[in-house]
Specification:
- This protein has 794 residues and is α+β, with helices and mostly antiparallel strands.
- The chain is built from 25 helices and 17 strands.
- A nine-stranded mixed beta sheet has the order 9-8-7-10-11-13-12-14-15, with helices on both faces.
- A hairpin with a 2-residue loop joins strand 12 and strand 13.
- Helix 1 packs antiparallel against helix 4 and helix 5 runs antiparallel to helix 21.
- The two termini are 22 Å apart.
Length: 794
Amino acid sequence: MIEFSAGLFLISAATLMYEVILTRLLSVMCWYYLAFVSISMGMLGMTAGALVVQLRPHLFTAQRIPERLRWSALAAAISLPIALLTIQSIPLENAVRPQMVYSFLLFSAVIAVPFFFSGVAICLALTRTNFPIGKIYFVDLIGAAAGSIGAIVLLELMDPSSAGFAISAVAFISAAAWARYAGEAPQSSRYAIIGAAIAAFAILNAALPAGFRPIFSKGAFENRQNLIAEVWNPISRIRALDLGERVPFSWGNSPNAPQTKVGEIGLDIDGEAATPVYRHRGGTEELSFLGYDVTSMAARLRAGGTAAIIGVGGGRDVLTAYLFGFKRIVGIELNPGIEDLVMRQFAGFGNLSGVPGLEYHLDEGRSYLSRTDEKFDVIQASMVDTWAATAAGAMTLSENALYTVEAWRIFYQHLKPGGLITFTRFYMPEPGQTPRLFSLGWATLLLEGVANPGAQIAMIASAKSSTILVSNAPFSDSDLNRIRSDAKSLGYKILYLPGEGAHDPDLAGIADAHSMNELLTAGSGDQDFSPVFDSSPFFFNTLRLGGSGLRGLASAIASGQWGTGNQRALLFLLIFLIAILILIALAIGIPLTRWAELPARPDYTLATGLGYFVAIGLGFMLAEMAMIQQLSIFLGYPIYSLVVTLAGLILATGLGSLASEQLELRTDVIARAPAIASAAILIAYCIAVIPVIHALAYLPFWMRAITCLGLIVPCGLIFGFCFPVGLRWMRLLGQEDSLPWMWALNGAASVVASLIAVLISIEASITATVITAAACYLLAGMALPRNESETAKS
């Protein structure tokens, strides 16, 4: 059994590694962070593989199982790098053209191919062998958990394209193990040698500047001109471009700013988001241009104070604070790749290390401030996100931890008397972000017990950006006079100022709110401006997805113009949903019609058994997606949330599966118990998760990860009983020949659930997604068929 278990462990690991690196690759190639696409296509491909096992039984007779295991692992190994290279050659543009649906369909189908072959292998291992189900399922899930962690290790060492070749090598070793299990030692040695060669090629490809890499990013060919560095890590891809001497990049420059040029290196994050590194020789005289950006307003008001800069990036806000004489500057940067480029590779160019009083921390801003007792005159975050997050809260996995009321209350409590929270977001062409930012500040003041929020908030805009100022004390007359005079001399637009009210109609509606209930209904037409909370932290998704939002999208499509990035995000999401639904119909729906044509129709026992597996498939994936979404707030890194949740949940589920072998299925009540217990523990998780992550937000990352596991593992242990107990119960009821159907429909339900989870989380909340998952498990417990005989023994 050792060779068999090794083959299953490795193919499961390769499958999860492929799924994780896809999320990293897609966030570079596509406009948004599309983890749900990777998860959906993984489940779809594996489900299609299971259906082949069911519909072509003559190909998978007992005598041929070892050989088929070997062939399916080999096919997965060969198809995996081909699939990765193919999708990197298919541009996905967010355009209103019929052929774009085909592009998305082709793109998604290619992603699913390696999953199809691994699905055949895993289905055969689970349903067509005589090994104990609980133990085999345990090996499968332990392999998957190891793969999710292994993917992070690979992404720390190499780019996703090279990692794809390394994963192919793992699949070849799986084929070698299964070849030995089949008694084919020469084939086993051959596959092992090929696997080693491919692993060596992966290392070589990672080392070569002109190796296999994405050639399309965000619908356009990659421009490698002036490229001086490229860094991949699990969080992002960062490319450094030498931009030479030019008018310095700014977010909201004054129209009255003098023309000047400065040496600049542009850091491109995931193909779209940008942060500049300016040539800085050590003094402030060459930084005067920073004082003309609207992001500098708080530094002007609290010159000479102390600042916490969230999202150091290339150092703009740090240098602005230095320009205005700040004595202490705490810089907090999430991305180690940016730290490496700015503080080491280009240290002599940007000279941030030469800024007096700068203390640099590689950390997540919210977590760092939760841990420190220090208070600041200014807490600043200017355009902190990547384009993978902007306008794409609809993707439900993005850098949202800084943009919730709970986060802002942490910032508020770390201000010195009269201190300022200052954030900058788009004013144009993303008009929804400005009122939502204002709403977030207004809600923070209300919940901090401020009787007159309007006296402690201001908002100013210039060019395409707006800057909010939220104070823990009413603005003084000197503050207000300074804002007015600077706005006049610099040509800024005042959007809201104490004593003057709102100069913007959207902000006026928010400023009329005197309670949280009134504020929660803030919006205009198809725009939602209500503040966001950790329970539904999708700050960047201001588009209502109900009737008005869809009508706005339809109008935009008809006109061929786009009013907001959110409409583009929604279209991108909808096209992917259409492509996935088409693939579900082709890969699952059509095979199911074959079943309907069979002379022997499903009886009550089989029908209710299938209902059980569909329900636990829905419940598991809804819970998994909700946990990934919720815990990304706590961990701060979307892909680490994905990996910690996948690894923890899958590992715990595997342990639960192993333990399930000890459960004697004497009655249907015992068989139903795991599903009902799963519903109960999800409700407990739902009650505990927000208080726990709020109470422990101050912990360092590794302790927050352990805390996440503490929340996830109990759920996974109970979930792990459901699938193997269901299979054993259905065997007791004489349904052995239908087990692949149950495996397949369980997978199909998971595909659908990954889409449903996105919609429920956006339209309701992540909490609602968890409750829906609990309801699915409860229904599963009720659906499991009874055993009509008086006794049933395991």
